[in-house]
Structures are given as C-alpha cells and as structure tokens.
Amino acid sequence: MTCNMLPAMPSQPLADAPYLSPLQSTNLREQAVAAIRGSIISGEAAPGRIYSVRQFADQLGVSATPVREALLDLAGDGLVEPVRNRGFRVVMPSEEDLDEIYTLRLMLEVPAAAMAAERVTAEVLARCRRYADVISKSAQKGDLSGFLEADRSFHLEILRATANRRLVETVLRLRDETRLVGLPALRGTDTLLASAHEHIEILDALSTRDAATAATITRRHIEHVRGIWAGQAERVDGG
C-alpha cells in the first residue's frame, strides 16, 4: 500500500508527542519498530491520534525513511493505520477486543509457563535474568519503552522454551494488540516496581523447575496487566 504523505508537514508540539529516545546508527528500521511499538502499547502514543512520519523521526533522531518503513510494518501488525496525506493513526482495540486478548493470553501463557519450567535451559534462564534486570532498572527510571521491550523479550524467551513456534507467534501477536493505557500514570510508582518484581518471581519458579508456581505467578501477572490496560492498578473483575 502506498501512503502519499506530506514529508514537510509541521511537527506536533513536543508536549503532545510521545517521548522516544534517539536511536543508534545500526538496524534503524528494527529499532524504530521496537521504539514506536513500545510507545503505542504503553499508551504514550495516544490512541486515535494521527502522527506524521516526521514527528516520530524527529523524536528518534533519524531520517524519515526507516521510520516510514517501521510504521508500515506496524500497520501490517494492526497497531497503526495509514491516513492519506496526514500520517498514521494509532489504532485502539475495543474493550471487547482487550477482554478476548486477556482470556486468550491466560489460556495460552499460563500452561506455557508450566511447560517452560520443565524444559528451560541454563542459557534461557541467563537471558531471562538479564531481561528481568533491565525491566527492574527501567521501572526505577520510569523508562516505559525500555520496560516494555525487555518485558516482551523476557516472555518471548519463556515461550520459546516450549519449542512451539505457533504458540510463540500467536502470543506475540496478542501482546502487540494490547494497549496499556494506564501505564504512563504508573511511572515511578510502587505498582510498576511490583510488576517488575513479578518477573523475578517467575524466573525463580523456572529456575527451580516449579511448574505449578510458574503458572500461578504468570496468571497473576497477566491479571495485573489487564488492570493496567484499563488504567487501574489491579485487574478488572470479569475481564
């Protein structure tokens, strides 16, 4: 699909733009995908708002080309949609969509955590521990993009331990369809730090091959996340 956007469109005022850290000089497209995806999922890129390629490019400190390519990738994943001559609109799932995603994640990720506890290797545990450390540090700094990217990588490692490629692809798609609209309000709070600590608890259960505990904590973690989707600290009853 060809998007005939105006590259010289004036940038949105900084106060209204999502905060994005400048990218490094390698793998710009992949980095842009990760950064913008994190901004969208965290709710910092406002649902329903249209952003120009230039706005994101200015925030990321790169040219428009890798950002445009990244946005087209994200459009393919359903996170944004192109708006002719204006840019890309951030797509917001309905509450019904989020409830369905929440239910599916419980159905898939809870037993997957139990399975992973029985199959996880020392190498996977080491990578998970590094990601858990980044998650904790990001929570302390209020770095939501870093928090979400490390969180995604942490859970990806657990899913891969099941050796089920379709499960990994399905859950990643579900995770990318969520929106943590309440997450920015949790920056610097105990709730965000508690969410970070749950990753340590999951890791400890995996390390001891305690499948039941890994499943229990994973369920609790997803329930807490569902609350953050709705802008609440705890899960939404019946969600």
Overview of this protein structure:
The chain is mainly alpha-helical and 239 residues long. It folds into 2 domains: 14-90, Arc Repressor Mutant, subunit A (Orthogonal Bundle), CATH 1.10.10; 95-229, GntR ligand-binding domain-like (Four Helix Bundle (Hemerythrin (Met), subunit A)), CATH 1.20.120. The protein has helices spanning 28-42, 53-60, 64-76, 95-119, 122-141, 144-160, 165-176, 190-207, 211-229, and strands at residues 50-51, 80-83, 87-90. The protein has a 3-stranded antiparallel sheet with strand order 1-3-2. Helix 6 packs antiparallel against helix 7 (165-176). It is globular and about 55 Å long. Mean pLDDT is 83; it is low at 1-15 and 232-239.
Features:
239 residues, mainly alpha, Arc Repressor Mutant, subunit A, Four Helix Bundle (Hemerythrin (Met), subunit A), three-stranded antiparallel beta sheet, disordered C terminus
Total helical elements: 9
Biggest sheet details: 3 strands, antiparallel
CATH class category name of the largest domain? Mainly Alpha
User: Which quaternary structure do these chains form?
Assistant: single chain
Strand order of the largest sheet: 1-3-2
What is this structure's SSE topology?
Layout: H1 28-42, E1 50-51, H2 53-60, H3 64-76, E2 80-83, E3 87-90, H4 95-119, H5 122-141, H6 144-160, H7 165-176, H8 190-207, H9 211-229
Antiparallel strand pairs: 1-3, 2-3
